[in-house]
Prior knowledge:
Blueprint: H1 5-11, E1 20-25, H2 31-42, E2 48-52, H3 57-67, E3 74-78, H4 82-92, E4 96-100, H5 117-134, E5 137-143, H6 153-159, E6 162-168, E7 174-182, E8 190-194
Parallel strand pairs: 1-5, 1-6, 2-3, 2-4, 4-5
Antiparallel strand pairs: 6-7, 7-8
Amino acid sequence: PTGIDEFDRVLGGGVVPGSLILLGGEPGIGKSTLLLQAAHGLAQNGKVVYITGEESLRQLQLRARRLHTLSPNLQAAAAAELETVLGLLHTEQPAVAVLDSIQTLYTAQIDNPPGTVSQIRACATTLQQIAKEQEIALFLIGHVTKEGAIAGPKVLEHLVDVVLYFEGDPQGLFRVLRASKNRFGATDEIGVFDMQSEG
Length: 199
């Protein structure tokens, strides 16, 4: 369990070792905030690595301080190249890792820029294998396009074990978390969150 009841219920009780979980939502909806808080909860029971390709480490540290999620078991790294990320996972051997976001990740073996379907497919496929081999529960953050689909959509949804969507209501008061796919639980649960200054 992450310790966030609404989040755990949608997941089906908590996080499964070796699983690949995709969290999608519009930019600025609170995906990074939610997963940083979940990572802090999971760090009470094992090592967690938060890898950001979106923010600098300084920005991430400021966010963690504001959310009161600093923890000795929660480590952070800034990386966007897949090979660097794989090296980190191999060296640190975390129980849980968060990749923020799949759109910024790239491998030098493919010429296309980050965020293209070929890059997303190659990176996600490799990460899926690593998650299974090392039994790392791996969260991928994905941005939703204007059409409402996760960028590089079907490529990712077939690969992962769980697809979560984080959405805002029209009034902007609450955030709703729902699963459109879940190999470990039901997809008819929702989690309701209230976005405040401390998360």
